[in-house]
Amino acid sequence: MTGVQAPKHPKFISVEGADIYSRSKSDGIRFRFVSYNILAQVYVKSSFFPHSPSSCLRWKARSQAILAVLKNLEADFLCLQEVDEYDSFYKGNLERCGYSSLYIQRSGQKRDGCGIFFKHENAELIIEDRIEYNDLVNSIQDDDCSCEEKSENVVTSASHDVESNKGSSPKTTLPDSGDPNDPRVRLKRDCVGIMAAFRFKKPFHHVVIVANTHLYWDPEWADVKLAQAKYLLSRLARFKTLVSEKFECTPSILLAGDFNSTPGDKVYQYLISGKSSSGFSPECLEELPLPLSSVYATTLGREPSFTNFTPGFTGTLDYIFFSPSDSIRPISFLELPESECPEVIGGLPNFSYPSDHLPIGADFEITME
């Protein structure tokens, strides 16, 4: 990046209005959590980002800029989406920064995926699980499952219940071939998620569940996104039960990712309330909504103005949710620029921000119950 502008290094803003590290040291567990869609290099083409300087799109420059951003964030947990150079770049480079990692590549022929990177000196991995949303297709194909009729609703409702022009990103490839009204085609989007339980090592033991996901992109397939969100919470609820029973604990939950959904839409409302007016609700998934709160809505009083900024779409698609309780609370949030900020005018990526998305994050404090 010699001779060009260095990547922007955002700061964490204390909820109390003072620098987080200037306050007296707490007896609780403090950790930093960041989520970031880093933009898979396979999607980086000048035709997708004609507004971006070509030199900042090249992998050699962009990879080093992303790595510089990740290092500067100094997170204990990094939830990254659109990771497509995991083995060749991210795994090794972040290992040298003290991170261990878990990774799931998207289904089918897709090259990118989701990764959880964690500082192993602070937290110990105790169990993990993986989510492939293509498994939703199995509920359609199983004639003995009571969810077939309701699964049909997810695909037929789209023509009547589309949330248009929301939650899109122009770089994604076209949908798989086949009849889009066939639920087996419609639900097979090759999207994935990953979740894991970690035990903090000090100052006391506490288990936290971290989940990372990337939901389907198309704004005209809101029903599929909602189906994925419901499956996600169902799996996460089961995982929480498993962890609670196996390790005799009450785990905290952190869920992050690119949800390709804007504040107030059906997916967002479902994630924060467990309720939706329509969509996919099969009994066979044993839907068990979890109470979740958004970090930015809690700390800032609103969601950010945007987390994805391109000339074709500007809006908030990325979120960090947590299970509200007396034992965990966000004590800071990662600042994000406003649309009039010089570093974002014209759209991302650029030399200040190496992805078309912005990193989001928070510091959390866990107190002993």
From TrEMBL:
Residues 154-184 are annotated as: Disordered. It holds the Pfam family Exo_endo_phos. Gene3D superfamilies: Endonuclease/exonuclease/phosphatase. Residues 154-175 have a biased composition (Polar residues). It comes from the Eukaryota. InterPro entries: CCR4/nocturin_mRNA_transcr, Endo/exonu/phosph_ase_sf, Endo/exonuclease/phosphatase. This is Carbon catabolite repressor protein 4 homolog 4 isoform X2.
